[in-house]
């Protein structure tokens, strides 16, 4: 008779502990194998990134790739008859 006593509570507690352990393990695994490697890749990328060089590369490509380059904006302003501020 003692084998069936508190069986529901025993299985319930075991289920809660197992699900808690699985949740913690999956969170640690997600961070270790997905978040941290991406974080390190972004840190490496932005340590060597020069936005001015990239802007020159983008603007060197033909119009259509990025129409907000300073040269293109200057042309648009001139076409519309607006003045461009001088430094």
UniProtKB/TrEMBL annotation:
This is Mitochondrial cytochrome c oxidase subunit VIc/VIIs domain-containing protein. Gene3D superfamilies: Mitochondrial cytochrome c oxidase subunit VIc/VIIs (4.10.93.10). Keywords: Membrane, Mitochondrion, Mitochondrion inner membrane, Transmembrane, Transmembrane helix. The chain crosses the membrane at residues 16-36. InterPro entries: Cytochrome_c_oxidase_VIc, Cytochrome_c_oxidase_VIc/VIIs, Cytochrome_c_oxidase_VIc_sf. GO terms for cellular component: mitochondrial inner membrane. It comes from Caenorhabditis briggsae. Its main location: mitochondrion.
């Amino acid at each position: 008779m003692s084998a069936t006593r508190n069986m529901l509570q025993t299985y319930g507690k075991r289920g809660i502990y197992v699900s808690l352990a699985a949740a913690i393990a999956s969170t640690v695994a997600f961070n270790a194998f997905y978040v941290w490697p991406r974080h390190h890749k972004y840190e490496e990328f932005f340590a060597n990134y020069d936005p001015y060089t990239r802007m020159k590369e983008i603007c060197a490509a033909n119009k259509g790739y990025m129409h907000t380059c300073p040269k293109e904006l200057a042309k648009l302003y001139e076409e519309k008859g607006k003045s461009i501020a001088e430094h």
